[in-house]
Write a structure and sequence with these properties.
It contains ten helices and ten strands. By secondary structure, the chain is an alpha/beta fold. It has a single domain, classed as Alpha-Beta Barrel (TIM Barrel). Strands 1-10-7-6-5-4-3-2 form an eight-stranded parallel β-sheet. A two-stranded antiparallel sheet has the order 8-9. Helix 8 packs parallel to helix 9. The two termini are 13 Å apart. The mean pLDDT is 97. One of its GO terms (molecular function) is isomerase activity. This is Sugar phosphate isomerase/epimerase. Keywords: Isomerase.
């Protein structure tokens, strides 16, 4: 079964969350992916999910938040029914400067995720483009992160792979068996969608989805998360992207 979800960060500029969830349910989504910025009002979030029948099957949660209060964060995760958690980002001033630093971060990430994994939660990392920029020795930060533990899983953001200048199929094949979710994100043709940071609705950009979908299926990935970092109309994005993914 292919799980099709929607990253709620796409709709951060279209509050309130209850209206966004209703729009997504009306569009045909059944699953969503959260982010820890939504957890300030847990009761309201859970009530809105219950009212629409949507399930938050995965979420981005800052790794430092988990490290600071693993028991409290695990309680939140269980309360919302989240099954997969991914560390989402490192600010520029937090990024290691060399291979040893990235390897150490991978080890630390694995340690942070251990309490969640022990509780049956899938845990791993979500990439942007900076993890796919080769270091002076030719190694990639993403590889060094994933070497932190064989238990770490990857949410591969396909749009950022392309933005970093790589073929997504190559990276899908590299991490066969370890990709627990994929961010299905499209890149607009050069010079288009500039008011949306050059991103496109899924199926309306330049990505070769036939090849990507085939590779993801061969790699055992059954969880696709639609994402657009800056849509100027999130209803349009949700509607067109869900239709495109269903055609894969």
């Amino acid at each position: 079964m292919l799980h099709i979800s929607y990253q709620l960060y796409c709709s951060r500029n279209f509050p309130p969350i209850a209206e966004t969830l209703k729009m997504l349910a009306d569009t045909g989504f059944r699953e969503v992916e959260g982010y820890n910025g939504l957890f300030d009002d847990l009761d309201g979030l859970k009530a809105a999910l219950d009212a629409t029948g949507l399930t938050m099957t995965s979420s981005h949660i800052g790794q430092n938040l988990i490290a600071d209060d693993p028991a409290g964060m695990l309680a939140t995760i269980k309360n919302l029914g989240i099954k997969k958690v991914f560390g989402p980002h490192l600010a520029a001033d937090e990024r290691p400067a060399d291979a040893a630093g990235w390897a150490a971060f991978g080890t630390r990430l694995a340690e942070i995720g251990k309490p969640l994994q022990d509780a049956g939660i899938t845990f791993g990392w979500h990439n942007h483009d900076f993890e796919l920029v080769a270091l002076p020795g030719g190694e990639y930060p993403l590889d060094l992160i994933m070497q932190g533990s064989d238990d770490l899983r990857l949410e591969l953001d396909l749009g950022w792979v392309v933005r970093a200048g790589h073929d997504p199929v190559t990276w899908i094949n590299k991490y066969q068996g370890r990709i627990s979710a994929a961010h299905v994100k499209d890149v607009a043709p050069a010079g288009q969608c500039l008011d949306e940071d050059g991103w496109a609705d899924v199926g309306h950009g330049t990505m070769d989805w036939a090849a990507i979908h085939a590779a993801l299926q061969a790699a055992g990935c059954d969880h696709y998360v639609a994402e657009h970092d800056n849509p100027n109309n999130h209803t349009r994005f949700a509607t067109r992207s869900l239709a495109a993914i269903k055609e894969f």
